[in-house]
Amino acid sequence: MNTQQPRRQGLTLEEIAARKQALKIAIAEQRENVNDAYRQVIAPFANVKSVSKYIGGSLLNSFTMLESAIWGYRLISRLFRIFRKFK
């Protein structure tokens, strides 16, 4: 009953070094992913010197889009009016 079980060997130094290297590579990849995500979030603000220029530029772009939508609506409604007259 007193049979001695073989002692389980722990990790060797080579295995520990290999795991450490793999973890370092994984951490470097994660850091790069975080940096890429940060750049994508911050990119719209990077070229802007001040907040007022950013807001002004956004308003100008949105006004242009709104104006284009209004012009499109007016054009389509006029076309429908023309076709109704031919009925």
Short descriptors:
87 residues, mainly alpha, 2 domains, 2 helices
Describe the structure.
The structure is a single chain. The chain is mostly helical and 87 residues long. It folds into 2 domains: 11-47; 50-87. Helices cover 79% and strands 0% of the residues. The chain is elongated, with a radius of gyration of 33 Å. The N and C termini lie far apart (106 Å). The model has no long low-confidence stretch (mean pLDDT 82).
Q: What's the pLDDT, averaged over the residues?
A: 82
**SS strand fraction:** under 5%
Q: How many structurally independent domains? A: 2
Radius of gyration from the alpha-carbon trace, in angstroms: 33 Å
Q: CA-to-CA gap between the ends?
A: 106 Å
Task: State the total count of DSSP E strands.
Answer: 0
Percent of residues in helices: over 70%
What can be said about this structure in brief?
This protein has 87 residues and is mostly helical. It has helices at residues 13-46, 51-85.
Q: What's the arrangement of secondary structure elements?
A:
Blueprint: H1 13-46, H2 51-85
